[in-house]
Known about the structure:
- By secondary structure, the protein is an alpha/beta fold.
- It contains 14 helices and 32 strands.
- β1 and β2 form a beta hairpin.
- The longest helix has 19 residues.
- 50% of the residues are buried.
Amino acid sequence: xxxxxxxxxxxxxxxxxxxxxxxxxxxxxxxxxxxxxxxxxxxxxxxxxxxxxxxxxxxxxxxxxxxxxxxxxxxxxxxxxxxxxxxxxxxxxxxxxxxxxxxxxxxxxxxxxxxxxxxxxxxxxxxxxxxxxxxxxxxxxxxxxxxxxxxxxxxxxxxxxxxxxxxxxxxxxxxxxxxxxxxxxxxxxxxxxxxxxxxxxxxxxxxxxxxxxxxxxxxxxxxxxxxxxxxxxxxxxxxxxxxxxxxxxxxxxxxxxxxxxxxxxxxxxxxxxxxxxxxxxxxxxxxxxxxxxxxxxxxxxxxxxxxxxxxxxxxxxxxxxxxxxxxxxxxxxxxxxxxxxxxxxxxxxxxxxxxxxxxxxxxxxxxxxxxxxxxxxxxxxxxxxxxxxxxxxxxxxxxxxxxxxxxxxxxxxxxxxxxxxxxxxxxxxxxxxxxxxxxxxxxxxxxxxxxxxxxxxxxxxxxxxxxxxxxxxxxxxxxxxxxxxxxxxxxxxxxxxxxxxxxxxxxxxxxxxxxxxxxxxxxxxxxxxxxxxxx
Length: 535
């Protein structure tokens, strides 16, 4: 029940009674209200700065999925997808809606998925104005005409000030993010971290699209070239996903979440970007730096009395972030849709310094490395880490994948075969030795390798590649713009014994990590791992 002229809306159907509803406010209005309420401050960029409170990142152990007839036989239950009782959900939901009743709340109608046939209409109900501004930035924005007939399919209810009672409510602690597929509700409480809003809908789509729409959801960035060829970039934090997909010669489709349809269209889920800003500089990442202006939200940064931001200050968190609508970036694809996927890049920051700078993958290898989702943590990033540590996150986004990782991997393999897309493993990490000995691969060389792959300049016959003896990966012998001696890690180490000792150590880590997937993976995927696995 909406009236766009007076911007009034009733939430009685959600159980939120007698609330003062601020419906579909503009970004500017929400910016000003946040400052008026003392919940944020304006920076010298013009962007607003907020502090998300106790939680400055997601809380994976407090993310639940209601176990019901829809989910019980489909979801991969475990420590990533933790089941929640349906009756407990209903009681907790009633407590949250009662908490929001008689309060001022901020409501936004928006949608996810840029491709018309896949649109998911979302109503977001927020306790705080800046959380609603985040929803404006991150979800797609309907027109006034579309709002007249808007009917929400999913509802996000976000109450950071509500604290659960674990003993009564069935949560682990006072914060929670719960998906209920039967009722199409994402219920979030006890945490002000805005990423829970975005990732709640992303997780829902990671179930809905493969189960009901025969569409592969992907935690990736994507761009499109002047010849309408689409490239997809997978990678965990610190691998260069945002930097490498933001290319002055290609239009950005999106930087984090996409779908790949049965007819080979790539579409963005989102209407904005949510980027890390730790050590951000205009020189290193000009596009993100330039997007920080009025309409953007900076989270958990430190600034002086004049509003000058110190991006190097991690005293609140290392997970400092900015949210902005995608139109803050100049070179974007409108609408956020691409056709003709030609190249996929798996980005990894290998701190062991043994994976090739770039290698071409077979469908089986692509599925294996997709399920593995490898990168590495380096010394000093976490307490107790004194040497490189392998880090694996299935499908490059395990915390958001409700189905078993092999379900997504088999869909990717099928897509590869149908389209003939090339898949490349790109090591943006260390070269000529591990972290502390070698050096980080220069960005200009990584860009040159990616450009060569995009331009079809890395070879077309088996003779153009050599096979890595430990990982079985096809390494190009030459690459335009890159010295030949930068294409071989073994030669660069100049110590075969140490190189192979370290390479075998990493290969063993891959195999050990993959043991939990072996019973679900087909023979082609199993054969995609390091050949030494064959006894």
